[in-house]
Amino acid sequence: MTARRLAYASFFAALGDETRLSLIAKLCGGQPRSISQLREGSKLTRQAITKHLRVLERAEILHSVRTGRESRFEFNPQAIEGIKEYLDFVSEEWDRALSRLKSFVER
Amino acid sequence: MDHRIEKRVELQAPVSRVWRALTDHREFGEWFRVKLDGPFVAGQISRGQITYPGYEHIKWQAIVQKMEPERLFSFTWHHSFDPNADITKEPTTLVEFSLEQTKGGTLLTLTESGFENLPDNLRLEAFRRNDGGWTEQMKNIGSYVAQKP
After folding, report:
1. Model-level pTM?
2. Taking the CB of residue A77, how many other CB atoms lie within 10 A of it?
3. DSSP at B102
4. Is A51 on the interface with B (CB under 8 A)?
5. Which residues does chain B have with pLDDT short of 50?
6. Spatial CB neighbours of A53, under 8 Å, sequence gap ≥ 6
7. Which of B42, B33, B45, B102 lies closest to B68 in space, CA to CA?
8. By the CB < 8 Å criterion, does A1 face chain B?
9. Which of A44, B31, B62, B135 is a plausible cystine mate for A100, CB 3.0–4.6 Å?
10. ipTM computed for the complex
11. What is the span of the domain harbouring residue B105?
12. What is the second-level CATH architecture of the domain A3-106?
């Protein structure tokens, strides 16, 4: 698996969770928010929210910025400028399909 | 930006053999990993179920464009992450398989074009269309890639 494919995969793996999807929904507007702000209306502990935020940060869906003693999280718009990356993803899928076709007709 | 994929592959099999592997719906299904409901017919929608491990919940939908025997097979398909997407309403890309006889067998050229038709922020689009089904799908993809790094 190439690095790009892995990045694409981790992007989707990071999204595969209701809580994380709701966190992104709150940050999609572009305004950075603190953990306390992100916790509003949620039953989750600060620790649980932090864990989810770190997963999203590792997948480069969010960035954290420090302001004073507090970390704020913001949406990384580059995470969704995916057309070039998506093209590479599809391209690799074709490589795999064509190699299956090759073994299929050459056997 | 060139929103297009092009692949060339030399196959050590006669053109007629490759043509059959591409256009016989059962043979296509075997290597592509999809269970198709019926034969490919130019101008008609082809439906089926993906059998690729981890993607089994995804429906196959394509509109067969051209079937020029032993020369060109093409179809359009969509790229939506929504399991309930309707191909007649979605933006599509064009997939073309063209065949040329060579000394050793067949030169197959695959092109997929029209990616500019897809929303620029394809992944955001996928996110926007999120419903329960999509989240479920992402979980499946997530566990699939975790198993097969």
Report:
1. 0.63
2. 11
3. -
4. no
5. 1, 124-142, 144-146, 148-149
6. A23, A35, A38, A62, A64, A73
7. B42
8. yes
9. B31
10. 0.77
11. 4-147
12. Orthogonal Bundle (1.10)
